[in-house]
Inverse folding.
């Protein structure tokens, strides 16, 4: 059985394309090793991410992400068990400032969720 987490958070300070690129490069490498797949969306200094994989790997990653100083106010949107991966081919798909017309159903619903969060929040 796999575990899938979805959360939202706020960047502690605005992240440059270079710092996001670095984060993604390391994350994808680690995710491949740890059999984690998922999707990360970044928009207006907010993140929304889904990650999934074997329970022990998801537990470990959740603990790391929770104490990562690059973001704060992490809110778990769902935490569920699943027999199948939603993103079998993505070590960590990424969308930056996605357009509201992005035609992927999952991306669309994640953007809607992101847009329903308050726009600004103090650290
Ligand atoms: C928004 C956000 C998403 C992240 N996603 C992942 C991820 O999918 N996989 C990953 O290994 N690290 C991810 N990280 C980085 C982890 O928080 C942590 O820095 C990383 O696992 C390295 O930990 P270690 O060097 O202590 O092993 C993310 C960080 C942030 C801020």
């Amino acid at each position: 059985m796999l575990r899938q987490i979805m959360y939202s958070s706020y960047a502690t300070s605005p992240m440059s394309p270079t710092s996001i690129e670095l984060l993604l490069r390391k994350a994808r490498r680690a995710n491949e090793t740890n059999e984690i797949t998922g999707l990360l969306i970044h928009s207006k200094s907010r993140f929304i991410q889904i990650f999934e994989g074997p329970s022990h790997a998801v537990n470990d990653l959740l603990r790391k992400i929770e104490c990562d100083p690059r973001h704060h106010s992490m809110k778990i949107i769902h935490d569920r068990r699943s027999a199948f991966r939603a993103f079998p081919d993505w070590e960590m798909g990424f969308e930056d400032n996605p357009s509201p017309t992005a035609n992927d159903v999952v991306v669309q619903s994640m953007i809607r969720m992101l847009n329903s969060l308050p726009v600004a929040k103090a650290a």
The longest helix spans residues 17-34. Residues 2-115 form a domain with the Alpha-Beta Plaits fold (CATH 3.30.70.100). Residues 23, 27, 30-31, 40, 47, 49, 51, 61, 64-65, 68, 70-71, 92 surround flavin mononucleotide (CB under 6 Å). The chain has one domain: 2-115.
